[in-house]
Design brief:
75% helix, mainly alpha
């Protein structure tokens, strides 16, 4: 998805700048973004002790933790080397911040496990650090290499941020509404590990029993299953869907600065495709 966004934003903004073709920098940025994303997934799986991702065994499950950590580090280093060779200080700062944000997001998540006092703003900030920051940097970086006005580049940043947040909320909804087979990983895995996501935050507003179960860290048999049912049936899913749609609508508005084209339409379609996953 992320390289696709880079290329679509590159094409859509290139029309504003009068560019006929994508530059070498546009193409390299797409590669760098995907390398950073892949490195972050390898490290995420180690931290979460996940043995499956998208229906396949994770790197650390196949080769061990040591190799997985080194593989992630290598990909981050290789991406950083390619990034430096782009010789654009604005983009280097932008993408370097993403790697810092990944670490901030992991620390924020680890420090709030089983904490039922996590507020929606805390959740959105963590989601920005872990997901939306990279998407926003991808889309703004593409606009910068198209040499458009700074106002347009900022709108592309906001587009990526809002799409990334919407995408994360949708993922967190699917964690409760899809099966292990559909997800390619254990269903309700975040809740089981104490990670408080949007559906849980909203369900906690209406159901004191949910707080009791989570704060007990699911020590009683059947308590996790009870918590999942509460989230599904006490408004958590519905309110999270509204949040995902709200962020999606903001992302669509961010595209208004672009001329009408097949590339802008494709970006709009990506927003709608994300939301269709929860319809």
């Amino acid at each position: 998805m992320r390289p696709g966004l880079v290329f679509l934003v590159s094409r859509a903004t290139a029309e504003l700048a009068g560019l006929k073709e994508l530059t070498v920098e546009h193409r390299r940025l797409g590669e760098i973004i995907e390398m950073i994303h892949t490195a972050s997934l390898i490290h995420d799986d180690v931290l979460d002790e996940s043995d499956m991702r998208r229906g396949k065994e994770t790197v650390h499950e196949l080769f061990g933790t040591r190799v997985a950590v080194l593989a992630g580090d290598f990909m981050f280093a290789q991406a950083s080397w390619y990034l430096a060779n782009l010789e654009n200080l604005q983009v280097i700062k932008l993408i370097s911040q993403v790697i810092k944000d990944f670490a901030s997001g992991e620390i924020k998540q680890a420090s709030s496990l089983f904490d039922c006092d996590v507020e929606l703003d805390d959740y959105l900030l963590k989601s920005y650090y872990k997901t939306a920051s990279l998407v926003a940097a991808s889309t703004k970086g593409a606009a910068i290499f198209s040499k458009v006005e700074s106002e347009v580049a900022e709108q592309m940043y906001q587009f990526g941020k809002n799409l990334g947040l919407s995408f994360q909320v949708v993922d967190d909804i699917l964690d409760f509404t899809q099966s292990t087979e559909q997800l390619g990983k254990p269903a309700a895995n975040d809740l089981a590990k104490g990670n408080i996501t949007a559906p849980v935050i909203f369900a906690l507003e209406n159901e004191p029993r949910l707080r009791e179960i989570i704060e007990s860290e699911f020590c009683e048999p059947g308590s996790l299953e009870e918590a999942i049912e509460i989230v599904r049936n006490r408004g958590g899913i519905k309110k999270a869907q509204e949040l995902a749609k709200e962020k999606g609508e903001l992302a669509l508005k961010n595209l208004n600065c672009l001329p009408r084209s097949g590339f802008r339409s494709a970006l709009e379609d990506m927003v709608m495709f994300n939301l269709e996953r929860i319809d």
